[in-house]
Amino acid sequence: MNVTPRVKEILSWYEGENPGVKTNLARLLMHGKLGGTGKLVILPVDQGYEHGPARSFAPNPAAYDPHYLYQLAIDAGLSAYAAPLGSLEQGADTFAGEVPLILKVNSANSLSDSVPDQAVLGSVDDALRLGCIGIGFTIYPGSDNCFTMQEDLAELTREAKAKGLMTVVWSYPRGGKVSKKGETALDIVAYAAHMAALMGATIIKVKPPEKGVDLKDAEKSYKDIKQDTLAERISHVMQASFNNKRVVVFSGGGAKDADALVEEITQINAGGGFGSIVGRNSFQREKSEAVALLNRIVDVYKG
Amino acid sequence: MNVTPRVKEILSWYEGENPGVKTNLARLLMHGKLGGTGKLVILPVDQGYEHGPARSFAPNPAAYDPHYLYQLAIDAGLSAYAAPLGSLEQGADTFAGEVPLILKVNSANSLSDSVPDQAVLGSVDDALRLGCIGIGFTIYPGSDNCFTMQEDLAELTREAKAKGLMTVVWSYPRGGKVSKKGETALDIVAYAAHMAALMGATIIKVKPPEKGVDLKDAEKSYKDIKQDTLAERISHVMQASFNNKRVVVFSGGGAKDADALVEEITQINAGGGFGSIVGRNSFQREKSEAVALLNRIVDVYKG
Amino acid sequence: MNVTPRVKEILSWYEGENPGVKTNLARLLMHGKLGGTGKLVILPVDQGYEHGPARSFAPNPAAYDPHYLYQLAIDAGLSAYAAPLGSLEQGADTFAGEVPLILKVNSANSLSDSVPDQAVLGSVDDALRLGCIGIGFTIYPGSDNCFTMQEDLAELTREAKAKGLMTVVWSYPRGGKVSKKGETALDIVAYAAHMAALMGATIIKVKPPEKGVDLKDAEKSYKDIKQDTLAERISHVMQASFNNKRVVVFSGGGAKDADALVEEITQINAGGGFGSIVGRNSFQREKSEAVALLNRIVDVYKG
Amino acid sequence: MNVTPRVKEILSWYEGENPGVKTNLARLLMHGKLGGTGKLVILPVDQGYEHGPARSFAPNPAAYDPHYLYQLAIDAGLSAYAAPLGSLEQGADTFAGEVPLILKVNSANSLSDSVPDQAVLGSVDDALRLGCIGIGFTIYPGSDNCFTMQEDLAELTREAKAKGLMTVVWSYPRGGKVSKKGETALDIVAYAAHMAALMGATIIKVKPPEKGVDLKDAEKSYKDIKQDTLAERISHVMQASFNNKRVVVFSGGGAKDADALVEEITQINAGGGFGSIVGRNSFQREKSEAVALLNRIVDVYKG
Amino acid sequence: MNVTPRVKEILSWYEGENPGVKTNLARLLMHGKLGGTGKLVILPVDQGYEHGPARSFAPNPAAYDPHYLYQLAIDAGLSAYAAPLGSLEQGADTFAGEVPLILKVNSANSLSDSVPDQAVLGSVDDALRLGCIGIGFTIYPGSDNCFTMQEDLAELTREAKAKGLMTVVWSYPRGGKVSKKGETALDIVAYAAHMAALMGATIIKVKPPEKGVDLKDAEKSYKDIKQDTLAERISHVMQASFNNKRVVVFSGGGAKDADALVEEITQINAGGGFGSIVGRNSFQREKSEAVALLNRIVDVYKG
Question: Which of B1, C77, D281, E257 could, after both became Cys, cross-link C32 (CB 3.0–4.6 A)?
Answer without folding.
Answer: C77
